[in-house]
Design goal:
By secondary structure, this protein is an alpha+beta fold. About 50% of the residues lie in helices and about 15% in strands. It is elongated and about 70 Å long. It holds the Pfam family GutM.
Length: about 160
């Protein structure tokens, strides 16, 4: 019975990993589509037990928003959705206008303002290296970390048995 539970757990981790990779591919595709329009400001509001939010805003040279898309959700099934109300608006004016920001929920507002902060830093050439690091570190995914921790536990137990 315990073996079946272990097998189910491993299969669940593998499925989560595969679906996580699919979500990363969706992000890459969406980012590339927006990048073809104009430079992209990224805002994030990651949460552990609440709905995490990620927003991609394609901003033209004059500050107008060419297109904006948002991914919000707790699970790996979250997808990007277009924010049509932002198209054509000036990013600085939206960030400064409470009236325009209040049309969004709190998580989206925080995420939008993070994207605006990143946009301002980009324009002022004050981005830090980790602000524009787009690499995907697959070996630091939660599933891989869990497998590594289990592996190291098993290896240490085996070494302890050999020593006794």
């Amino acid at each position: 019975m315990l073996i079946y539970f272990g097998i189910i757990l491993v299969v669940a981790f593998l499925i989560q990993g595969l679906l996580g990779l699919k979500q990363i591919k969706d992000f890459s595709t969406t980012f590339h589509q927006l990048r073809l329009l104009a430079p992209v400001a990224i805002g994030k509001n990651p949460k552990k037990f609440q709905s995490g939010t990620l927003i991609l805003i394609s901003v033209k040279e004059d500050g107008s928003i060419a297109e904006a898309r948002m991914m919000k959700g707790i699970t790996i099934f979250a997808k990007f959705k277009e924010l049509k109300s932002l198209r054509g608006e000036n990013i600085a004016e939206v960030a400064a206008s409470f009236e325009q920001l209040k049309q969004f929920d709190k998580l989206t507002r925080v995420c939008f303002l993070d994207a605006y902060k990143n946009y301002v830093n980009y324009k002022a050439n004050k981005l830090r290296p980790h602000d524009f690091d787009s690499t995907v570190k697959i070996w630091s995914l939660p599933m891989v970390e869990k497998i590594k921790a289990t592996y190291y536990k098993v290896v240490s137990r085996l070494k302890n048995k050999e020593m006794n």
